[in-house]
Amino acid sequence: MVPTLLQPNFKRDVRSPIFARLYRSLPIQSIRVFTLLGFDALSLSLAWLIAEILSTPFVSFWSLRENPISLLPVLGIELGVLMTGGFYKDGPARRKYLELCKAITLAGVLLLLVAYFYHPNQFVSRSHFLLFWALSVVCIFTARLIGDSALGMLRQNGAIRYPVFLIGDTRHLEQLIASIKQENRYNIVGIADPRALTSREREATFAKIRQLGVSEAFVSWDAIKDRLYLSWQFQAAGIKLNVIPVGLESLFQQSKFWTLGEFPALRFAPPSITSSDFWIKRVFDICSALLLLIVLSPVYLAIALLIRLDSPGSVFYRQTRIGLHGRPFKAWKFRTMVINADRLQKELEAQNESKDGVLFKMKDDPRITKIGQFLRQYSLDELPQLFNIVLGEMSLVGPRPLPTRDVEKFSEHHFVRHEVLPGITGLWQVSGRSNVIDFEQVIHLDLSYIQNWSLGLDLRILLKTVQVVLQKTGAY
Hints:
Elements: H1 26-54, H2 71-84, H3 97-118, H4 126-156, E1 162-167, H5 173-182, E2 186-192, H6 202-211, E3 216-220, H7 227-236, E4 240-244, H8 249-252, E5 256-260, E6 263-267, H9 275-295, H10 297-310, E7 316-322, E8 328-334, H11 341-348, H12 370-377, H13 385-390, E9 395-397, E10 402-403, H14 404-407, E11 423-425, H15 439-451, H16 455-471
Parallel strand pairs: 1-2, 1-3, 3-4, 9-11
Antiparallel strand pairs: 5-6, 7-8, 7-10
Helix pairs in contact: 1-2, 1-4, 2-3, 3-4
């Protein structure tokens, strides 16, 4: 017997557009589009009326006094150009004001051409059209700014938001949630791990999503399998699918799409500090380090004396750290702990306050000496690393070099931080220092520095470091 649509056990072909439902977000989107169209139509009508009042009086088809319906082709041309330019689509496109100004200018030129060719022998008030163009820009910009502000306030209070479902690896959930909340237009009504999309759990997951009335789903790249089939499933359920390339975001920012025959291809452009950029940074580091060593030499002597008076042991402490391309080197520091600190750390591992255990962080570390506590609060223990900079092992700004113990706990994607010279300070240090206990957040900050590097960024981080050190932010 051939199965029919009436049979409960009939499983539909999700590829068929007959079964594709309207997107659940369509009602809200429709209201937004029609509201925006209404605001723009009112703005253009007001601009046309004011322009006619202020311009040279004229008798023409385009005069509202003579022909009130002349406003219809004006609105049709203006709104048509804006619609073609994508200024009513969802997302940031409608807030690109420079592009919006260009579109209004193009619409004004088209309107002037239509007016000329429609009645080539009839007088056309140039002042009217010029005033209309200027007033259109002012009125539309003002209306959109007011509309966006009102919409932002409503969404801040929980209105006009899209219910969304999030599927992603637990390692990336916090980052994904933060990114979604930053958009200020979504309500996360459900969260699941990648197992929710396996063949065994898939049907139950879609049933739950439909029950929650979800309009969009966000799925991390590494969580989604059988992408084409799942995209059909989401479309059939009337749910927009957003696949987020978590872990590849640093590569995507400077990458380009191109076409290889009939196939779309993505050319990765990983950020790097090489060639002339590297030498600019290196010369700046060496000159700054030598100058600081000369200026701060009295401070070095005073700290050395205080350390010797405070506790037995050497003034300096040299620890093996992992640097550029994973090569170990000896990082210099003023000693801030008792002489047997390395042995004691093994006994204190159970009290590690780092979220994932990669780093060793302990707020009230009993190994730290009295003078060591003071040196750490103001990061004075890091000053001897200026010698590492001169030797080419470190930079003023970059990812902090970590001990062998921490690097041994790295996941594969953590090693990207070893592709640049480690630094005395960096985005991690100016973003909370020891208060940042999630190593994934540390990696995110390191990648952000690498992909956005410039000499100006280094200078801003150095100035911010001075402020953070003086305020003792996150220091222990």
